[in-house]
Amino acid sequence: MKLIIDTDPGIDDAIAIALAHALPQVDLIGMTAVFGNTHVVQSSRNARYLADLLGFDVPVAEGAALPYGEVSYAPSDYVHGPEGLGDLMTIPQIGQNDPRNAAQFLCEMAAKYAGELVICAIGPLANIADAIALDPSFVTNVKSLVIMGGAFEHAGNVSPYAEANIIHDPIAADAVFGSGMTITMVGLDATMKTLLTPTDFDDLEKAAPKIGGFIKRIADFYLGFYRSVGVIDGCPMHDALAVLACTDPEKFTFQMTGIKVTQSGDEIGATVADTTRKPVAVAMGCDAVWAVDLMKTQISGLG
Ligand code: RIB
Ligand code: CA
After folding, report:
1. Which atom of ligand 1 is nearest to 158's Cα?
2. Which residue range forms the structural domain that includes residue 84?
3. For 32, 77, 147, 262, which has the most beta carbons within 10 A of its beta carbon?
4. How many domains, the chain?
C-alpha cells in the first residue's frame, strides 16, 4: 500500500508514523506537515526528526500554517508539549523540506499513483482541502482518504461537540467531507476505545529500548495531560488507529453516511450526518485489543 501521512506531530502522530514505518504492507512514500498540535514549521521539523530517528528517508512537504479563514493560530502546547513532542526542546533541524508544498506534493503523488495512493490525514485538514482546490483530479486519483478526526455519536474532546482536528479547521474539514473523495472517518467513536496505559509504554520501552523508549518518554507528557483533565490513567491511540484503518478496515465497524461540519455557534466543528453528501465510512468501533496489541508488536520490532 502506497501511503502518505498528513500530520501535525504530535505525540500520537509519532506513534502512528512509527507504526506505519513498521507495518510490512505499508510503503510510506512521504509525509506532509500541517499546523495543529504545533506550528507547521515545527510539524515538518518533527516529521523529519522522527523519520531520521526511525531510520527512513522520505520527502516531507510543508503545508498550511493557518486554518481556512483565520489570520492567526495558537497551538495548545499543554497537550503535546512546547515543540509538539512532549518535553523535547530544541528539536534539531534534520535535512530539508521537499521543495514542493504539501498540496503540490499530494497532487503529484496522487497523479503518479492514481487509484493506488492512500492518504492518512491525522491533523487538521487544510492540506487536503488545498490539494482538492489545486487539482480537480485529486479527488478521483486518491484511492481513499482515511481521516483521524470527528466525533459522530461520541462527545468531542475540545468542546462537547467537536474533535480537535475538525474544530481546528472547520472550513477545510467541511470542504473535504463535501468533495466526493472516498473517505473513512476514524473519530472518537472508535479511538476512545483504544486506550494506551503507562504499562503499555513500559512494555514498549522494554521491548524496543531506542524507539519504544523514545515513545515512552514523549507519551509521559501526553499521559500527564489526560491525568490533569481527570479523564483516564492512559491516553487514546488516536492517530495510530487511523493507520490501522488504512491497512485492516475489516477490524472496524462502520456507519455509512454523508458528513457535514457545523461552521458556527456552540456546536462549531461538530461532524453531523448529511444525507445529501456522498457517504463516508464512519468508524463506530474497532477490535481495540487487536489494535493495541498490533501497534505494540510492530513497534517492539523497531528496536
Ligand atoms: O483529537 C485527536 C487528534 O488531535 C489527534 O490527531 C491528535 O494528534 C491531535 O492532532
Ligand atoms: Ca495528529
Report:
1. 1
2. 2-300
3. 32
4. 1
